[in-house]
Specification:
InterPro entries: LysR-type_TF, LysR_HTH_N, LysR_subst-bd, WH-like_DNA-bd_sf, WH_DNA-bd_sf, YidZ_PBP2. The protein is α/β, with parallel strands linked by helices. It is built from ten helices and twelve strands.
Length: 309
């Protein structure tokens, strides 16, 4: 077994390792951390010597992590997050914080929302790097927040949250039916809705949507003709076709701009979005500041109408 002198490993060298891991590039990592490439290369070489592993190997014009680095990355991410939490107890000064903010959400369905969040952060800290990560299903939130890949998440409210997560209401929206008026008429009855060809979002999860549960309770089903991983691709799939898509009305301002929408011909409760964070950062001054910024940015008075129907 390789003896490791843990005293030689510090937060700086681990942060450099993680930047190279995420960027798959020494030069991109250096740019992200605003240090020179030689510093990054020296730090990686030092860590290689300490751990007795190459960590990264050449692959074409880039690099890929070794099996050991793949195992290390989530542990290092969690460790750095825990280290930050140790000192994140007093007043937070955003202008003195060099670290980027990372927010997980389904950007394609919250495109207008994330734009407001970005602008609200930049209003206070113009040079702050803001990273939006694709969330997928709400069940992915715990992994992203626990690993430190995201500081906070914005997700559709599930039936139950894991104990490790805390949340607060953020916004709500109504589900509507989108269609291309050049190809079909608006859906007016539940029979028309069920007989129509549907295009749906597919984030890779196995849980049924609230709409599917509602239809099943009434002994109804719908015909799913195609699925896509985000709203932008879904919108392109239904343009010029007789397919319909049931989504939050706010996507009319982004991905579904130019398409029409009509009311959903089935009683469906509003779609609630929550702001979610890991319980270990509940008292973090940094994340309290970020949560307050997001909460204000997403209040109804800062939201615009959904555009033409």
């Amino acid at each position: 077994m390789h003896d490791i002198d843990i005293s030689q490993v510090n937060g700086r060298i681990l942060r450099i390792f993680l930047a190279v891991y995420d960027q798959r590039s020494v030069s991109k990592a250096a740019h992200l951390l605003e240090i020179n490439q030689s510093t990054v290369s020296h730090s990686i070489e030092k860590l290689r010597g300490i751990l007795g592993d190459g960590l990264f190997v050449q692959a074409g014009r880039g690099i890929i992590p070794s099996a050991h680095a793949e195992l290390m990355a989530p542990k290092v991410r969690r460790l750095l997050a825990d280290m930050a939490a140790l000192v994140d107890l007093g007043e937070y000064e955003p202008h003195e914080d060099p670290e980027p903010f990372s927010i997980a959400s389904n950007g394609s369905t919250l495109a207008c929302g994330v734009s407001r969040i970005r602008d609200a952060i930049w209003k206070h800290v113009p040079d702050k790097t803001v990273t939006f990560r694709e969330l997928g299903t709400s069940s992915n939130a715990e992994v992203l927040l626990d690993s430190g890949r995201a500081n906070i998440a914005i997700t559709v409210r599930p039936s139950k949250y894991p104990q490790a997560l805390k949340h607060q209401p953020l916004s709500s929206d109504q589900m509507v039916v989108f269609y291309d008026p050049s190809a079909i008429e608006p859906v007016r009855t539940i029979t028309d809705f069920c007989n129509a060809r549907h295009a749906t979002l597919d984030f890779g999860g196995s849980a049924k949507s609230e709409l599917e549960k509602t239809l099943e309770k009434q002994g109804l089903t719908r015909k799913v003709a195609c699925m896509a991983p985000n709203a932008w691709l879904l919108a392109e799939m239904i343009r010029g076709t007789n397919m319909i898509a049931t989504l939050p009305s706010q996507v009319a301002q982004s991905a579904f701009s130019g398409l029409r929408h009509c009311p959903l011909p089935v009683t469906q409760s509003k779609l609630n979005f929550d702001l979610v964070w890991h319980r270990r950062y509940d008292n973090s001054a940094r994340l309290k500041w970020l949560r307050d910024i997001v909460q204000v940015a997403m209040t109804p008075k800062n939201q615009t109408s959904t555009g033409p129907k």
